[in-house]
Structure formats: structure tokens, C-alpha cells
């Protein structure tokens, strides 16, 4: 008997969530007041969940490691948020958004969850606009949309290239309203270091006050982990410097299964690495692929400047290989195609590990339409270029400015140089339909869970999922659990389970200081990142993964013998914070490789070199691998695989084609 | 390597808000012009750790200019010499070989120093909690296109909403005024029909909290607008003053 029960409601796909909402147990207002909920993380999922639950009457505590909940890395999302509004009258529907998401995820996500996500997507836009999020509008006053990868409709809502910022600040304002009303206690500059389970249920957390260094015990009837993804296991990624897996990993070590850890998304359009000093990578939004054309020189090893290479000498390889979707193929496909060209010796720039993203055609096209709009007859070539630049600037101005800031090159004049980089992790804590992990009372929302994106996430879907989970799913599903907890009084944090968990967290800190080694935390983090990128990155093989596992184990031993953590524990000490996070990343890295080794098929972002078609496309093996790999931590770095079979009832499973 | 620089850094070191701080001089060598300012700090911290010294504490997170966490006062200017960028987006090509660079924390009574270059900006959150929102509970919203909003209003609201809450405006102001920060939120919500409903209470409550936190008054020098990495306009302050005036004669 499997330990995994996905708790998918009975009934037809379209009716499952409706039926669930109508029949799920409720908690009466008086009882809500005595039920306490802990939320870890204040991004889109955490902020929206915390404010919604507080509005409903629960007592909520929110934790974030940054100095303010407004800093959470959702803020950096650029391009947009999908919703099946069909405002553009281009044939969109809940079913199409559902279908695109399942297909985009390469048939490795759960139908019922994805359908629910698609069906609440419209409500998210309504909620955000009502709370004052200034999404882009047309002159008639209606909301504007744009296209994103992997779809053929315009369903992406946006706010210039700062959609994540605007949505997060909207959710943050709702959260701060509840803080002001006294319904939420906000604990900023706190980091969760363990979860506390009592009699098989999650009952709280251990957190460290990052300013005083003091460990604290916090009780909750339920705990929501909204702590984001683990892309920083690669050291270089588009994540914020502080983004980490510690909350999710500690939960995993306390019984929460980890789902599909090897499913990571390598985003095709990022600014390439410029040198050894590189600390992070910066994304250039996928929305740029609406207007930018990707190319490399046709000639092998061409060293000429971009402007010296004529149209005939350019290989627009995405348009060539995938005529139906062209530059708008999904991220995994675009990333692999860039790697293929660079590996074959057609890369550009000093490192030769980059391809061009070129806006020349778009600037010319927009120049003409803008001239017509402005009523300028017979515009000169310079005028046309200037008009075109103005339109491009309005759409992507902040991205172009950021590119110039980082590279010192003007992308209006020269094509951008881009290369894939780690961006998002589809894997995460395994959750059932209620978003509950395998530990009762412990939930995971947003990027921290594995649930909706399968093996590859489509653009503009992360913001959608974070807010869907927080605003529209957890407020219902948490009732199914808490309605049975109404008689449970708040448990004293003197309980032996709290004492033991705090002692455990303290021992890890003491151990880190006691090593007094010779190498910094970053030294180990960079080495881990290199192993992961080379052997568990865009292409994976049995040989490479086995080597990676051995190397990571050796690195783990070395870390615990030779890391140097300066300063003291009872102080603001960012190096100590990093050390704890990197220790967890090293363990996670091993599990990611184990998971990647187990999955001998290629699907989405997971490309096994042994499993490809003659044309080099990913080859899925549905007979063997149409399942979620949920890993149980049995201690001592041993992991046991549990499988949740994926059943496709509404969609006919097929090899993806974007040709 | 060509173009690499040797620099002298004078950096504010302070163990906590209870202890006095001082500028300490650190030489750094072989700095690439392609590094960001914070990557140069990474290099310095790596050296300090290897030598057995305590690294310099500084706030940073996204390193792409949007989270608002980085906050260094560089050569007398918040976020350094370039207009329109945060410290994390400032690159070393803005400096030259042999330069001396002085780095201090934000200085304002409402932003006490936590350690070295790290300050406490929670006062901003407390101001927002007093009114920087629209009181709409989850699940109450009507269809998003039911309220048409003129593009010019939506764009103006967006420009005000682009504030990243870094506090450069406060740091640069001789009065440590938070008017640019507070007015950006007041304006954003005042410009939108959804936000008009609570406009009166909002501006009164937010301004009251701003004063309580110990931020100074505005004397219209405009330094905040010059130093704002996101180009938040001084017009927002004018709009807030109008909102505040109207609210108080109602």
C-alpha cells in the first residue's frame, strides 16, 4: 500500500474543485480565533495565504529572513501572470490554460491540481486589480495582454517588466493591513531552522532571530511552508542571494516527502556569466521573445561583430527547427537548443557561451506602425528607428536598462547576448490536493511544492500558482484539517518536542563554529554549484550523475571538516546563515542526482542523454515514468522512492511537438 | 589583467547600535570592471574570512535592482555615483584604478544601525501598515475589467508603485524625511478609483505614523528625487500634500 494518497476528489475534472468547495468542512468564526497558523516565507504564496487566513479570523504568524516581507524574491519576476480571461477573444478558456500547462509540463503533473489552477486564474487578476495593482492597460481603459512561450493565445497580464514586483507589493499591502489590524504577527529577519512534530502532526517551528541570534520556539496548529525554490543549489542562478532550501529540507528530514527534486528549469534568456567573480545571474524576461529573434552565425567559430554578419549569414535556429512556435517554444526546448548551438561551436561573445537575442526587426516593425499612429508621412530611416525604439522602450525599458547596466552594451543598437541559467525548480515538497505534505498539518505552497508544473513550467505561471495557492486554495483546504483540530488547545513550547528540536538546531550551529576550518562557505557553495551545473544541469547522463553523487558526498565530508564560520552565534552573522543553508544544499544536491539517475527518460527540463530521438529531441517513456517520484528521507543520507502514478483522464498523453 | 583596478576602501564598521562605529581602511586589488559593487564586497569579505577577521555585514538579496534590500552610502551618495541604479546594479566600471571609495550605512534616526552597513528599516513597514493598502478581502473582487482605468492614470499609478522601499530618499535628505516613500504609496492608491474610497483616512494615518517614527519634514530640496534609483517623482509629494490638505479640511 502506497504511503501517498493524493486525495483527489471524485467526479468529473471540471466539477472536482466545485464539489470540494461545497462539501469541505468549515470552521466557525469563534473557533478560528483560537486556531494558530504559522506561515514561513512572505512571497506571493506566503503573503496571500497569510492575509487571506487572517481575514478569515485565524491567528497568523509570518516569518521571513529578509528585513521586510516586501523583499521576497517573487518581487523579481518580470514578464507576467497568466489567466484564462479570454479578454483578447482569441479562443482562450480554462480548458486551454489547463491543457497548455499539462503539455508544457511534459505530462508530469497532476491533472486535478492543474485544472483547479486554471479555473481560479481569473479570480487572481480580479483580486489583484481590486487591491490596487496597476497592471498594464490599453487606451480604452481595459487590461492589456501579451504572449508567452508555449501558448498560442495572449493571456499574460503584466506591469511593464515588473509584474512580480507589482503583484508582490499588492499581496504585501494586504498582509501589512492585517499586521496593522493585529491579526498577523510579523517576524522579519527570522529564519526557520526546524519544524516540530508532536504525535505525528506538525505543531510549530524553531526559528532564529537573525539579529540577536536567539533561537525561538513557535507553536501553530498548522504550518505553511511558502519558502520558494532551491535553484541556488547551483550557486549561480537567477534566485536572490538568500533564497534557500533550508525550511523545505528540514521539513523533509522530519517526514515530508520531496517530490521530483531533479525537475529544475533552466531559463533560456539570461545575461551570460562574465567572470569568476559572478555571484548571481540576471534574467531577461521571456516576454522579450515576443519581439526578439534568437540567432547565431551560420559560420562555425565566426568572430565578427553581430552588426557585420548579414541576414543570409545568420541562423535563426528556433524558427528553423520549430516553425509553428518559433522563438516562443517552451523554456526547456529553447535552452537546450542554445546549448546545442554553443556546444557545436557557434556561440558568440568572448566566452562563446552565448547566443544573440535581436530586436532589430521589432524596432523596424514598430517604427512603421508608430509612424502611422502619429500621422508622420514619409518618415526617414532615423525617424523610423527612433519611433520603433520608443515602442520597445515602453514595453521593455527597464529590462533594456538593466542589460546595459550589467554588460555595458546598449541593446537598442547591439543584439543582447544571452545564455540559459537556472531559474526555477518545479520539484519541491510532495503535497496532496489539499497542499498538505506527508506530515499532517504541514503544508507547502507556491514554488516550495512540486505540484502544478510537472517537468517544465510555462512562463507567467509561477506568479499564477503562488497566488492561486495562497488566495484561493489554502483558505478552503486548510479547513479540512483545522475543523478537526478545534478542540486542541495551544501546546506549550516547553513541550519536550520543542525542547528537542531547539537543541538539535543549536547543536548544528555549535558544530559549524567548532570546525574552525580554512575555507569560506562560498568556496563550498561554488564547488557544489559547479558539480550540479556540469552533471545535473541541462543534460544528464548515468555516468555523470554517478560521478556527481560521489563528488557531492566527498564535498559534504570536506565541508564538515574544513568550513570556516567567523563571528559568534549570538549576533547578526550572515556567514552563519549561509553556512546552514549550504549544508542543506549539499544534501539536497545528492538527492537531486539520485532522482535524476532514477528517471532514465527525458521529460521537460530533465534531459537524459540516453533518452533522445534521432533529431535530438527529448524522449519520454510514459510506460515507465508517468509518476511523481516522492522521496522519503530515512536518515543517514538514505532515501526511499515512493511513486504516485499520474492518471490522465481528460488529456490524451502525447509526445510534445512545437514544430 | 587589463583594466583591473586597485582601490582603497574606507568602510564603516560598527558592532551594534549600542557601540560606536568608525571608518576602517581596506585595500583591494585586481578588481574587474565587470564586477558589481557588491561582488567587489564579496571579494573583500572572502579575504577577511581567510585572514580570520569578521566580514563586513551588509544587506543585499536579489542583486538585480528590485528587492530594495541593498543600501550603501557610497562617496556621500546613496547607491553611489550613477543615477537610477541601486548599489547591486552599480558596476566597478564606474570607478577607476587608484580610487578611494568611502562606504557608510544609511544615516537616519528612524533607521538605526544593526551592524556595519546594515540598518533597520522596519519603520517603512509600520507606515504601510497604517494605510498603504486597499481594504479588500480575498474573494470580494468584481471582474477586473469592470472598472475601466484611463491608461494615463494606470501608468502614473504604476510609476509611483515602482518604489522599491530602499530608503535612499531618507538617507540623502538633510532632514531624513520619508516624504518621497510615503507619497509614492499615497499617490499610487489615490490615482486609482479603487483607492479613492479610503483616500482621506489613508493619508492622515500614514502621515501620522511617518511623524511618529521620527522621520523629518520636507523642505523641498528635491535630493530624494535625484537619488531615487527608481526615478520616483517629486510630484508625488505635491500630490500627497494636496491629499493631506483636503483630508484635513473635510
Spatial ordering of strands, largest sheet of chain B = 2-1-5-3-4
Task: Report the strand count of chain B.
Answer: 7
* Strand order, sheet with most strands of chain A: 5-2-1-9-17
Radius of gyration of chain A: 24 Å
The level-1 CATH class of the largest domain in chain B? Mainly Alpha
Give a short account of the largest sheet of chain B: 5 strands, mixed
Percent of residues in helices of chain B comes to 25-40%
What is the CATH topology assignment of the largest domain in chain B?
A: Fumarate Reductase Iron-sulfur Protein, Chain B, domain 2
Radius of gyration over C-alpha positions of chain B, nearest whole angstrom: 20 Å
Overall SS class of chain A: alpha+beta
The computed structural class of chain B is: alpha+beta
- β-strand amount of chain A: 5-15%
Distance between the termini of chain A: 42 Å
**Residue-averaged pLDDT of chain B:** 96
- CATH superfamily heading of the largest domain in chain B: Alpha-helical ferredoxin
Explain what this protein looks like in three dimensions:
- Chain A is an alpha+beta fold.
- Among the domains of chain A are: 266-422, no CATH class; 496-645, Fumarate reductase/succinate dehydrogenase flavoprotein-like, C-terminal domain (Methane Monooxygenase Hydroxylase, Chain G, domain 1).
- Helix content of chain A is 38%, strand content 14%.
- Chain A is built from 17 helices and 19 strands.
- The longest helix of chain A has 27 residues, at 381-407.
- Chain A starts with 12 loop residues before the first helix and ends in a 14-residue tail after the last strand.
- Chain B is α+β, with helices and mostly antiparallel strands and 250 residues long.
- Chain B folds into 2 domains: 5-115, Ubiquitin-like (UB roll) (Roll), CATH 3.10.20; 122-249, Orthogonal Bundle (Fumarate Reductase Iron-sulfur Protein, Chain B, domain 2).
- Chain B has helices at residues 37-51, 122-128, 151-161, 168-172, 179-191, 193-196, 199-212, 223-227, 235-249, and strands at 5-13, 22-31, 73-74, 77-78, 100-104, 113-115, 118-119.
- In chain B, strands 2-1-5-3-4 form a 5-stranded mixed beta sheet. In chain B, strands 6-7 form a two-stranded antiparallel sheet.
- In chain B, a hairpin with a 2-residue loop joins strand 6 (113-115) and strand 7 (118-119).
- In chain B, helix 2 (122-128) packs antiparallel against helix 7 and helix 7 (199-212) packs across helix 9.
- The longest helix of chain B has 15 residues, at 37-51.
- The N and C termini of chain B lie far apart (67 Å).
- The model of chain B has no long low-confidence stretch (mean pLDDT 96).
- The interface between A and B is large, with 83 and 78 residues.
Amino acid at each position: 500500500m502506497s504511503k501517498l494518497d493524493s486525495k483527489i476528489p471524485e467526479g468529473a475534472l471540471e466539477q472536482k474543485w466545485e464539489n470540494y468547495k461545497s462539501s469541505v468542512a468549515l470552521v466557525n468564526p469563534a473557533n478560528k480565533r483560537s486556531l494558530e497558523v504559522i506561515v514561513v516565507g512572505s512571497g506571493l504564496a506566503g503573503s496571500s495565504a497569510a492575509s487571506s487566513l487572517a481575514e478569515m479570523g485565524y491567528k497568523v504568524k509570518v516569518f521571513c529572513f529578509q528585513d521586510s516581507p516586501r523583499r521576497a524574491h517573487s518581487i523579481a519576476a518580470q514578464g507576467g501572470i497568466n489567466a484564462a480571461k479570454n479578454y483578447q477573444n482569441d479562443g482562450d478558456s480554462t480548458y486551454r490554460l489547463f491543457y497548455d500547462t499539462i503539455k508544457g509540463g511534459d505530462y508530469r503533473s497532476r491533472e486535478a491540481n492543474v485544472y483547479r489552477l486554471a479555473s481560479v486564474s481569473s479570480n487572481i487578476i480580479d483580486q489583484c486589480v481590486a487591491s490596487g495593482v496597476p497592471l498594464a492597460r490599453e487606451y480604452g481603459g481595459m487590461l492589456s495582454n501579451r504572449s508567452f512561450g508555449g501558448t498560442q493565445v495572449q493571456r499574460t497580464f503584466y506591469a511593464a517588466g515588473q509584474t512580480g514586483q507589482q503583484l508582490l507589493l499588492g499581496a504585501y499591502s494586504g498582509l501589512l493591513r492585517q499586521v496593522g489590524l493585529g491579526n498577523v504577527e510579523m517576524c522579519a529577519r527570522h529564519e526557520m531552522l526546524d519544524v516540530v512534530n508532536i504525535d505525528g502532526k506538525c505543531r510549530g517551528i524553531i526559528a532564529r532571530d537573525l539579529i540577536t541570534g536567539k533561537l525561538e520556539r513557535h507553536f501553530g496548529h498548522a504550518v505553511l511552508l511558502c519558502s520558494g525554490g532551491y535553484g541556488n543549489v547551483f550557486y549561480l542562478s537567477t534566485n536572490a542571494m538568500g533564497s534557500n532550501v533550508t525550511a523545505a529540507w528540514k521539513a523533509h528530514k522530519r517526514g515530508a516527502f520531496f517530490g521530483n527534486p531533479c525537475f529544475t528549469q533552466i531559463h533560456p534568456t539570461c545575461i551570460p556569466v562574465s567572470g569568476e567573480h559572478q555571484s548571481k545571474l540576471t534574467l531577461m524576461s521571456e516576454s522579450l521573445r515576443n519581439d526578439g529573434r534568437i540567432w547565431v552565425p551560420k559560420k562555425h567559430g565566426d568572430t565578427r561583430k553581430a552588426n557585420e554578419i548579414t541576414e543570409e549569414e545568420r541562423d535563426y535556429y528556433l524558427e528553423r527547427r520549430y516553425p509553428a512556435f518559433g522563438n516562443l517554444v517552451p523554456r526547456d526546448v529553447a535552452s537546450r537548443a542554445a546549448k546545442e548551438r554553443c556546444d557545436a561551436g557557434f556561440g558568440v561573445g568572448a566566452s562563446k557561451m552565448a547566443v544573440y537575442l535581436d530586436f532589430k526587426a521589432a524596432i523596424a516593425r514598430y517604427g512603421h506602425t508608430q509612424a502611422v499612429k502619429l500621422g508622420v508621412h514619409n518618415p526617414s530611416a532615423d525617424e523610423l528607428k527612433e519611433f520603433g525604439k520608443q515602442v520597445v522602450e515602453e514595453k521593455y525599458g527597464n529590462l533594456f536598462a538593466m542589460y546595459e547596466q550589467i554588460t555595458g552594451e546598449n541593446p537598442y543598437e547591439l543584439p543582447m547576448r544571452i545564455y540559459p541559467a537556472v531559474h526555477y525548480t518545479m520539484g519541491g515538497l510532495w503535497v496532496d490536493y489539499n497542499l498538505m505534505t506527508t506530515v499532517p498539518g504541514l503544508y507547502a505552497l507556491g514554488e516550495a511544492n512540486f505540484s502544478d508544473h510537472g517537468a517544465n513550467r510555462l512562463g507567467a505561471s509561477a506568479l499564477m500558482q503562488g497566488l492561486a495557492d495562497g488566495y484561493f486554495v489554502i483558505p478552503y483546504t486548510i479547513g479540512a484539517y483545522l475543523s478537526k483540530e478545534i478542540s486542541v488547545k495551544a501546546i506549550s513550547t516547553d513541550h519536550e518536542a520543542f525542547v528537542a528540536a531547539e537543541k538539535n538546531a543549536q547543536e548544528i550551529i555549535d558544530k559549524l563554529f567548532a570546525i574552525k576550518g580554512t575555507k569560506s562557505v562560498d568556496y563550498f557553495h561554488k564547488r557544489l554549484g559547479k558539480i550540479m551545473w556540469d552533471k545535473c544541469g541541462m543534460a544528464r547522463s548515468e555516468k555523470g550523475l554517478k560521478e556527481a553523487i560521489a563528488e557531492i558526498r566527498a564535498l559534504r565530508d570536506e565541508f564538515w571538516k574544513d568550513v570556516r564560520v567567523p563571528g559568534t552565534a549570538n549576533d547578526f552573522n550572515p556567514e552563519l546563515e549561509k553556512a546552514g543553508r549550504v549544508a542543506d544544499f549539499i544534501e539536497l544536491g545528492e538527492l537531486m542526482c539520485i532522482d535524476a539517475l532514477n528517471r532514465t527518460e527525458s521529460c521537460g527540463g530533465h534531459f537524459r542523454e540516453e533518452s533522445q530521438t534521432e533529431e535530438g529531441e527529448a524522449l519520454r517513456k510514459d510506460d515507465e515514468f508517468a509518476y511523481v517520484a516522492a522521496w522519503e528521507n530515512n536518515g543517514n543520507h538514505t532515501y526511499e522512492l515512493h511513486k504516485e502514478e499520474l492518471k490522465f483522464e481528460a488529456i490524451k498523453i502525447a509526445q510534445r511537438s512545437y514544430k | 589583467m587589463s583594466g583591473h583596478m586597485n582601490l582603497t576602501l574606507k568602510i564603516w564598521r560598527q558592532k551594534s547600535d549600542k557601540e560606536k562605529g568608525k571608518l576602517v581602511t581596506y585595500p583591494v586589488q585586481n578588481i574587474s570592471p565587470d564586477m558589481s559593487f557588491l561582488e567587489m564586497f564579496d571579494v573583500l569579505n572572502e579575504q577577511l574570512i581567510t585572514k580570520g577577521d569578521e566580514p563586513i555585514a551588509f544587506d543585499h538579496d536579489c542583486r538585480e535592482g528590485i528587492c530594495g534590500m541593498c543600501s550603501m552610502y557610497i562617496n556621500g551618495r546613496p547607491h553611489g555615483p550613477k543615477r537610477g541604479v541601486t548599489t547591486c546594479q552599480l558596476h566597478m566600471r564606474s570607478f577607476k584604478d587608484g580610487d578611494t571609495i568611502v562606504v557608510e550605512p544609511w544615516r537616519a534616526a528612524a533607521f538605526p544601525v544593526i551592524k556595519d552597513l546594515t540598518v533597520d528599516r522596519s519603520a517603512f513597514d509600520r507606515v504601510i501598515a497604517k494605510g498603504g493598502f486597499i481594504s479588500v478581502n480575498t474573494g470580494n473582487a468584481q471582474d477586473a475589467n469592470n472598472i475601466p482605468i484611463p491608461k494615463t492614470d494606470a501608468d502614473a499609478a504604476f510609476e509611483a508603485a515602482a518604489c522599491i522601499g530602499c530608503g535612499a530618499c531618507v538617507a540623502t535628505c538633510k532632514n531624513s524625511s520619508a516624504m518621497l516613500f510615503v507619497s509614492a504609496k499615497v499617490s499610487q492608491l489615490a490615482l486609482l478609483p479603487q483607492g479613492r474610497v479610503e483616500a482621506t483616512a489613508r493619508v492622515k494615518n500614514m502621515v501620522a505614523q511617518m511623524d511618529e517614527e521620527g522621520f523629518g519634514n520636507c523642505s523641498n530640496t528635491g535630493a530624494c528625487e535625484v537619488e531615487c534609483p527608481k526615478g520616483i517623482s517629486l510630484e508625488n509629494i505635491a500630490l500627497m500634500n494636496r491629499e493631506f490638505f483636503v483630508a484635513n479640511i473635510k
